[in-house]
Write a structure and sequence with these properties.
single chain; mainly beta; seven-stranded parallel β-sheet; 5 helices
């Protein structure tokens, strides 16, 4: 009897072992579904366990191999442990789980579908899965695992508009009955004009962007009878040991809401494979509706991806506001650690918010392209990648919130590349890159009216090139630092700021038609820079003996500074109220080039010209302003002022008759070199000007009668610390006073030009320090102003 019992125990053990081996199942491994996010990659990467794992899902429920349906249950022929052929369409109404060590093949025009929101089809086989032409798998969630997965022409894995409920405590479905689109990877669009938020459903699941597994959200309805628009997109996960061929489509798109509701947002697609090939489509796009749905999230973890594949997560079209589609979703390349946000040239005003960026490991690249609009909304944020940050083809990258421009942002990368695109910053920006290349693009920095916003600094170590109407502009202080070349190539290229400092480059080239400018054109910007010099004759010490380091802040006097630059070539325009070029070697102003502080000096100033009953006196500076006469009334011009030995004052302005013609401006100031660091050589083929403003308009009263005119502004100052000067033919160096009004206005006084020569050679051999074939002009309507030299201090150039 005892021997019989032992025999039964041994027989049962052998039977259990054989059953386990026939199923390819390891008894030491759990048969339940484990958490996908923590376990899936090991299943793909570890060949030793690929054939004996139970597929990982995200559902808290678990399947055992005994829960698997058979090939016959799906009306197929064969077995999942050999090859199962599905030759007829099979409908399901609940979740289904398939397990086997063989293959699955779905023949042409055959579908396996569960058209129920959130329904899951899970297929876990150790062999291959093939979808023949026009074959399809349709469900709210589709999870496929195989050694190879092949999708032929027009085949599909489709979870579009079949999404289940999105994660709890998310706001992907918009509130109200405005017909706004649902949100997920990108925000849904809202066509409501007075919508304070300017978007529909919001984004969610940013933290799982590299392994997305969330449903899309429904769009909003347009009435209480229809509370929702299109459904959200579903979920697709494809685990492939080797090669995935996609010649059909893999979709998790949002549903269409039509004209009665917003589009649903795209769902989630996650792919892991060694090779991803084909000519098909992978899409988690938002659905069309009254307001378009936002795009979903796609993550591809593949060693190689064929470029012919179309991969998209664009926002859905908006019927109610065609120019404002849903925002783009996200496409993350988990193998390269790069993020792409593209709206496939579907125009939108709705943003895709990007939140915290990975620091361990750092992402390699970030791409914003094809009319995607990306927002980094945090008060302080650091965006750092190992490679490129690229904004292309109508894309825009926005830092901060327009209503609160007090944020500070850091952008760190190897390269910052912009083409037909915009970067907008509300607050301050700090950039650290090796290369900045811009083509028909702009970087716009808005610091608001707050004085607490720090200067924006762009550190470009090797190369900075602006081409084809590219602009960098800031209404606060702006500094560009580098060690290589800064080039503004041609027409429309510009760098502008409230104050602007360019330093440490070995060469700066201002191409023909390009512009360096500080301050901006508005009176408030100019007044901020010039006010402290217009009320006093105090000479700014930082212009004569500047600090050794090059920095930009509110305490310094310059508006436009070029500091520690070897060579400066100006073919375009340098424009500023107070231009200071120091610690430079050579400055060349070419034939079409101009360095100008004309009409950018004081609104009033020490030598202000007055206006009295139609007659306007000209402003004074190096010379006295001319008197104005109108209907027998005389207005005396402004007084002469300034230091003839070392001039460093702005030109003065004049009063006007009314609010429409309040002031005529004086000339600004140009300082080249400094006492300690004189400029090695100035070659002037073009012009250098600090002229006063002229008034050329006729002013009439309400009854049409003439009321006279104001006087002209006085010329400013050109202060040159030089070793050598060459004024070539047709060049000009001027600080002339402006013309007064044609009826009653006196001319402005001329300004001051001063040459402070340094290191003049001594000995018997004559070495010229100045060669002049151009024009020196410091005239005014009341006689010559002042032209002085640092050593002989006479009124002739020759020493």
């Amino acid at each position: 009897m005892l021997m019989y019992i032992w025999f039964c125990i041994l027989l049962g053990y052998l039977h259990r072992s054989c059953l386990s081996l026939s199923l390819g199942h390891n008894l030491n491994r759990s048969t339940g579904l484990e958490d996908w996010l923590g376990y899936s990659k090991s299943l793909v990467r570890d060949n030793s366990i690929l054939h004996d794992f139970v597929f990982v899902g995200t559902s808290p429920s678990s399947y055992s191999n005994n829960d698997s349906v058979s090939c016959e249950d799906l009306e197929g022929v064969g077995s999942f442990n050999t090859t199962c052929l599905l030759s007829s369409t099979h409908y399901l109404n609940s979740d289904v789980y398939v397990y086997g060590v063989g293959n699955l093949e779905i023949l042409s025009h055959v579908s396996l579908l569960c058209p129920v929101e959130g329904c899951m089809i899970t297929v876990n086989v150790s062999g291959n899965i093939k979808l023949r032409q026009n074959a399809s798998i349709i469900a709210g969630s589709v999870v496929l695992s195989a050694a190879n997965l092949s999708m032929e022409y027009s085949s599909s894995i489709n979870s579009s508009s079949l999404g289940g409920p999105p994660p709890s405590q998310t706001s992907g479905t918009p509130f109200g009955i405005d017909g706004a689109g649902g949100g997920h990877g990108g925000r849904g669009a809202s066509c409501l004009k007075n919508n304070k938020t300017n978007w529909g459903g919001d984004v969610y699941s940013w933290s799982t962007l590299s392994e997305p597994w969330s449903y899309g959200s429904k769009g909003g309805g347009k009435s209480t009878q229809k509370q929702y628009g299109g459904n959200g997109g579903g979920r697709v996960k494809l685990l492939v040991k080797d090669t995935l061929y996609v010649n059909g489509s893999v979709t998790a798109e949002g549903g269409n809401g039509g004209s009665d509701g917003g589009g649903g947002s795209g769902g989630s697609i996650s792919v892991q494979a060694i090779k991803l090939k084909g000519y098909g489509t992978i899409s988690a796009a938002g659905g069309m509706g009254w307001g378009g749905g936002g795009g979903g999230r796609i993550s591809l973890d593949c060693y190689s991806i064929q470029e012919d594949l179309k991969i998209t997560a664009h926002g859905g079209m908006s019927i109610g506001c065609p120019g404002n589609s849903g925002a783009a979703g996200t496409y993350f390349n988990a193998n390269l650690l790069s993020l792409k946000v593209s709206n496939d040239n579907v125009t939108t005003e709705t943003e895709t918010p990007l939140l915290d960026f990975s620091t361990t490991p750092l992402w390699s690249n970030v791409y914003v392209e094809n009319h995607a609009k990306v927002l980094v909304p945090l008060v302080w944020s650091r965006v750092q990648v190992r490679g490129q940050i690229s904004v292309y083809c109508g894309g825009s990258l926005i830092f901060g919130l327009s209503d609160y421009p007090i944020s500070e942002f850091e952008l760190v990368a190897e390269e910052l590349l912009l083409s037909d695109s915009i970067i907008e910053v509300f607050g301050a920006l700090r950039v650290s890159v090796k290369m900045l290349l811009m083509w028909n693009s702009s970087i716009q920095i808005d610091g608001g009216e707050s004085t607490v916003v720090t200067a924006s600094i762009l550190e470009i170590r090797n190369l900075a090139v602006l081409r084809q109407n590219s602009i960098i502009t800031s209404n606060t202080n702006l500094g560009l630092y580098g060690q290589g070349l800064l080039q503004l190539t041609g027409d429309g290229d510009a760098i502008q700021g409230q104050r602007l400092s360019l330093s440490l480059f070995y060469n700066i080239t201002v191409g023909s038609g390009s512009l360096l400018q500080a301050p901006l054109d508005d009176d408030a910007s100019r007044g901020t820079v010039t006010k402290h010099l217009c009320d006093t004759q105090r000479c700014p010490i930082d212009l004569l003996t500047p600090p050794d380091d090059c920095h930009v802040n509110y305490t310094l006097s310059f508006s436009l500074q070029i500091c520690r630059v070897e060579d400066l070539l100006v073919n375009g325009v340098m424009k500023g109220s107070i231009i200071h070029i120091h610690r430079a070697r050579t400055v060349i102003v070419d034939t079409d080039g101009m360095i100008t502080a004309s009409e950018l000096g004081c609104t009033e100033g020490i030598g202000k010209g007055n206006f009295l009953n139609g007659s306007g006196g000209g402003a004074g500076h190096g010379g006295k302003g001319g008197s104005g006469y109108f209907n027998g009334i005389k207005s005396i011009g402004g007084n002469q002022y300034g230091n003839a030995i070392l001039p460093c004052e702005l030109g003065s302005g004049t009063e006007g008759p009314n609010e429409s013609h309040r002031h005529v401006l004086g000339g600004g100031m140009i300082v080249l070199g400094s006492i300690q660091w004189p400029l090695l050589r100035l070659d002037l083929y073009g012009s250098m000007r600090a002229d006063g403003q002229s008034f050329n308009k006729a002013i009439s009263s309400n009854d049409g009668s003439m009321v006279g005119g104001p006087g002209g502004g006085s010329g400013g100052t050109v202060l040159l610390f030089l070793q050598e000067l060459r004024l070539l033919e047709n060049s000009s160096l001027s600080v002339i006073g402006g013309n007064g009004g044609s009826l009653g206005g006196g001319g402005g006084g001329g300004g001051r030009i001063h040459f402070h020569w340094s290191k003049i050679g001594m000995g018997e051999e004559y070495v010229p320090i100045a060669s002049i074939n151009g024009t020196l002009d410091n005239s005014s309507q009341t006689g010559n102003a002042r032209l002085t030299n640092g050593y002989c201090l006479n009124e002739k150039l020759e020493c």
